[in-house]
Design a protein that fits this description.
Elements lengths: L1 H9 L5 H9 L2 H4 L20 E9 L2 E9 L9 E7 L9 H10 L4 E5 L17 H15 L5 E11 L1 H12 L5 E5 L4 H7 L9 H16 L6 E2 L6 H6 L3 H13 L9 E2 L3 H4 L14 E7 L5 H7 L7 E8 L6 H4 L1 H18 L1
Parallel strand pairs: 3-4, 3-5, 5-6, 6-9, 9-10
Antiparallel strand pairs: 1-2, 2-4, 7-8
Length: 353
C-alpha cells in the first residue's frame, strides 16, 4: 500500500528505455513517419485529404514543436474555424491530442497540437519542468501561432484541453478571449492532485512534500543534479496490481499500447513548488465563453470536473457531458468513446464558432 500511495502521489513516470521497449512491441506505430501512435493516424499527405504539417515556432525564446492539421481540400485563400488542443500531463502531440486534432480536421477544422515547453520535442531546460504558468503560456502560444496560419478565421478559434491540458485550458480561457468556445475532456486538476494526492489521499503529507520540493530547488540552484519526481520503471506485474483505473490504465496506455519515447511522465521535483499552490478551479467565474466539459461516467477523475463545472457561473451555454461507460484513459483512444466525444465537440463548436 505504501508503494502504491507513492506511485499515485508522485504521478506516473517511466525511463526512456522502458518507453522504447514498449514502443518496439507496436512496430506499425513506430514506423509512422510522423511518429504518431494513435489508431487511424495519417501516414502520408495526399491531395484532397486531411494533411499534417509539422511546424516549429518560438515562445518566450523556447522552440515549440507542433503539428498543424488541415482539412481535406484545404484552400489557404478560404477561411476555416480552428481549434487548439492541449495534451495531457506526460503526454505529447503524437498521442491522444493528435487523435482529436486529426478527427476535428476531418470535420473541416484547422487544428494544432503542440508539445509543452520543456517537454516532448519542444525545447527548454531543465527537461520535464512542469509548471502551471508555463503550461498555460503554451496554450496562449498555440493561439498566437494558429490565428496567423493561412486560412484560419481568428474570430472562430476554439480550444480543447485533455486531462492536465484540460485544467490548464480552463485557466488560459479565463483571460484569453481569443478562445470563443472552451472544451475539456477528462479534466485533471494538476494542482489539486499534486497538493492533496489523487482522490485527496495525501492530505497528511503536504508539508513534507513541499519540503522535498524546496530541497530539490536548493540543489538545482547550486548547479547539482536535477531531482525528478516519478517512478523509474514499471513492470507488467506492478501495472496489474495498481488499484485505480486512472493509473493502471494510464500505465498501459503510456508505457505499452501508445508508448512514445518523448512521453515520460518525469517532472522536476521543484515544479511542485508551483503546482501545489495552484488550482485549476479558481476564478472559474472569469470564463464567459461557451463551455463544454466532458468526462467518462466511470472515470475516477470525474470528481475534478464535478468540482470545477458549477464554479463557471458566467459561462455562456455551459454543459457537462458524460460519456457513458468510459473511464478516464478510455476517452483517449477507445473508438466508441472517442466518437461520442468528437460528435459532442462538433455540435458544440458548430454552434459556437
Amino acid at each position: 500500500m505504501k508503494k502504491l500511495t507513492s506511485i499515485i502521489a508522485l504521478a506516473m513516470s517511466v525511463a526512456a528505455t522502458d518507453v522504447v521497449d514498449a514502443q518496439s512491441t507496436h512496430k506499425g506505430k513506430q514506423q509512422n513517419p510522423y511518429t504518431l501512435v494513435y489508431e487511424g493516424a495519417i501516414t502520408k499527405n495526399e491531395k484532397g485529404k486531411v494533411n499534417i504539417h509539422p511546424v516549429k515556432y518560438k515562445l518566450n525564446g523556447i522552440e515549440i514543436a507542433a503539428n498543424v492539421y488541415t482539412p481535406a481540400n484545404y484552400d489557404a485563400s478560404k477561411k476555416y474555424p480552428a481549434v487548439s488542443v492541449a495534451h495531457p500531463n506526460g503526454g505529447i502531440k503524437e498521442q491522444t491530442a493528435g487523435l482529436y486534432a486529426q478527427r476535428l480536421a476531418e470535420e473541416g477544422y484547422i487544428t494544432i497540437a503542440a508539445d509543452a515547453a520543456y517537454q516532448g520535442a519542444s525545447g527548454g531546460e531543465p527537461r520535464h519542468t512542469d509548471k502551471p504558468a508555463s503550461r498555460i503560456e503554451d496554450i496562449h502560444g498555440m493561439a498566437d501561432f494558429i490565428i496567423q496560419y493561412a486560412g484560419v478565421d481568428a474570430n472562430r478559434l476554439g480550444v480543447l484541453g485533455i486531462c492536465g491540458g484540460g485544467g490548464y485550458t480552463l485557466k488560459a480561457a479565463q483571460s484569453d478571449k481569443r478562445f470563443k468556445a472552451v472544451a475539456t475532456l477528462s479534466m485533471f486538476n494538476s494542482g489539486e492532485v499534486r497538493r492533496n494526492g489523487f482522490q485527496n489521499s495525501q492530505l497528511n503529507t503536504i508539508q513534507q512534500r513541499l519540503k522535498q520540493a524546496s530541497d530539490a530547488r536548493v540543489q538545482e540552484a547550486a548547479g547539482d543534479k536535477i531531482i525528478y519526481a516519478g517512478v523509474a520503471s514499471i513492470t507488467d506485474a506492478e501495472i496489474a496490481k495498481t488499484t485505480t483505473d486512472l493509473y493502471r490504465e494510464g500505465y498501459e496506455y503510456y508505457y505499452r499500447s501508445h508508448a512514445h519515447p518523448n512521453s515520460t511522465f518525469l517532472y522536476t521535483m521543484s515544479s511542485l513548488l508551483d503546482l501545489m499552490t495552484w488550482d485549476a478551479a479558481t476564478n472559474m467565474d472569469l470564463i464567459n465563453q461557451p463551455l463544454l466539459m466532458m468526462a467518462g461516467s466511470k472515470a475516477d477523475t470525474k470528481y475534478m470536473t464535478d468540482e470545477a463545472f458549477p464554479k463557471a457561473t458566467n459561462a455562456k451555454n455551459k454543459e457537462l457531458f458524460l460519456i457513458e461507460g468510459a473511464t478516464h484513459i478510455q476517452t483517449y483512444w477507445k473508438p466508441e468513446y472517442v466518437s461520442q466525444a468528437v460528435n459532442k465537440l462538433l455540435s458544440f463548436y458548430q454552434k459556437n464558432l
